[in-house]
Amino acid sequence: PVLVVDYGAQYAQLIARRVREADAYSEIVPHTLSTEEILAKDPAAIILSGGPSSVYADGAPRVGADLFEQGVPVLGICYGFQAMANAMGGTVAQTGLREYGATETRAEGGARSILNGIPEVQSTWMSHGDSVHSAPEGFETLATTAGAPVAAFANEERRLYGVQWHPEVKHSAHGQRVIENFLDLAGVRRDWSTRGILDEQVSRIREQIGDSRVICGLSGGVDSAVAAALVQRAVGDQLTCVFVDHGLLREGEAEQVERDFVAATGVNLYVANEQERFLSALAGVTDPEQKRKIIGREFIRAFEEAERQIIAQAAAEGETIRFLVQGTLYPDVVESGGGEGAANIKSHHNVGGLPEDLKFELVEPLRALFKDEVRAVGAELGLPPEIVGRQPFPGPGLGIRIVGEVTGERLDLLRKADAIARAELTAAGLDDEVWQMPVVLLADVRSVGVQGDGRTYGHPIVLRPVSSEDAMTADWSRLPFELLARISNRITNEVDGVNRVVLDVTSKPPGTIEWE
Ligand code: XMP
């Protein structure tokens, strides 16, 4: 693999993704690994990520010079670049001058080496305080900026490279080219493909499960659907999927699972129709955290009941269920510090989270994958685009998009408004521009309106379209006014009880994406 050494900034995952976009397999490792531990992973190349502001800062992670003496090609990025400079005997100066954001960068002596094929003057994304003032011996300066006398360098003979900017962010227009140039110079094989992932996972799953029985839960989301479809492809009828329909999904989503997913995969599906159960458990509850707890608790109970039925059925056939499929993704594994094999149950936000006292062994076919790769594998498996392309949707569903008590009537109303908003967004071709667009019913708020000749006293619907890379931060999407107008007209005309549509123009922070 290409190892991305994580120095603690949020950029390591982005780097790992960009390497995979260049069709090379990458893994993230913590900076606490020793050089021997890193070498034990047999890296084809190493990339040092960005990190804390200064190599001189208290507790800043050290990078031993021995890492650069193993014959493994290394690319240092931002902090990693300065750490390499520092370890190899260059000078890193604390100028107190910061460069932040888009910065003009000029190639020295022509664009070559890792800058090959890139304009000599380019805009790069910077975020640094210290600067490299002189390159270490044997290194050549490749680029400079106003604030950084050495903004990129190379030691071709030893295949050591570094850039001050962040090639992994999209604001660095030629960033991907830098990464690909490095992979080429490092001689890294570019053989990571969706087809390859699929074949490898299918044979791994077969090996793990053998001829045992396995169950999985479907939430309607991308991850559980792709994980289930992979396991189905591997072991066919040994798999039974459970779908707990809690009645908090959006319009058409339960059908997507029960009809389209089943048609595409041929999976054995056990449906638990639990709408009433969730509604009565939520009656009278308005506090968001309370709602989450109740939905989470009922979900686990409903899942366990379904599970007991399936176990009993298997027992009648002389079989036991040994395995449970989880749609854990690579970012979850990295964030929980999990290395190989550590069972990591997604407890994030609790719903879809499963009981702690698991009696099953876990099958986690997506453990090595990023979300975009999961979507690609899903498409390769023939899953419907509505499932594969689905935007993130919270486990507690519409339950936390009704501000106020959740009732059947309010759910119906919100489902209609949401379906209109989604249909119009899709028709405008803007699905890829927005990360997600919660549509929220302010059930506890009423406002006066006028419709026809009459006065109305209805509820507002909030549109909350946001753009984001990872949901940790977000900005409100600048949707075209015509589109907003169309959504507003249609919702107020077609959804009884709604007489106002408002747009949320708050970034995150300070707002969260959801209203509850
Ligand atoms: P916030 O509202 O915290 O949301 O900015 C960040 C992301 O998490 C999703 N979200 C949830 N997902 N259970 C989930 O599975 C939850 O309780 C939950 N709350 C928020 C939200 O949709 C966004 O993508």
UniProtKB/TrEMBL annotation:
Catalytic activity from the UniProt record: XMP + L-glutamine + ATP + H2O = GMP + L-glutamate + AMP + diphosphate + 2 H(+)
Active site: 78, 166, 168
Record SUPFAM superfamilies: Adenine nucleotide alpha hydrolases-like (SSF52402), Class I glutamine amidotransferase-like (SSF52317), GMP synthetase C-terminal dimerisation domain (SSF54810)
Pathway terms, separated by semicolons: Purine metabolism; GMP biosynthesis; GMP from XMP (L-Gln route): step 1/1
Gene Ontology MF term list: ATP binding; GMP synthase activity
InterPro entries to which the protein is assigned, alphabetical: Class_I_gatase-like (IPR029062), GATASE (IPR017926), GMP_synth_C (IPR001674), GMP_synth_GATase (IPR004739), GMP_synthase (IPR022955), GMPS_ATP_PPase_dom (IPR025777), NAD/GMP_synthase (IPR022310), Rossmann-like_a/b/a_fold (IPR014729)
Keywords: ATP-binding, Glutamine amidotransferase, GMP biosynthesis, Ligase, Nucleotide-binding, Purine biosynthesis
Superkingdom of origin organism: Bacteria
Keyword Transport in annotation: no
Pfam families in the record: GATase, GMP_synt_C, NAD_synthase
Its EC number(s): 6.3.5.2
One Gene Ontology term, aspect cellular component: cytosol
List of residues binding ATP: 219-225
Domain (GMPS ATP-PPase) ranges: 192-390
Assembly and interaction partners: Homodimer.
Purpose: Catalyzes the synthesis of GMP from XMP.
Protein name listed in UniProt: GMP synthase [glutamine-hydrolyzing]
UniProt source species: Falsarthrobacter nasiphocae
Organism lineage: Bacteria, Bacillati, Actinomycetota, Actinomycetes, Micrococcales
Gene behind this protein: guaA
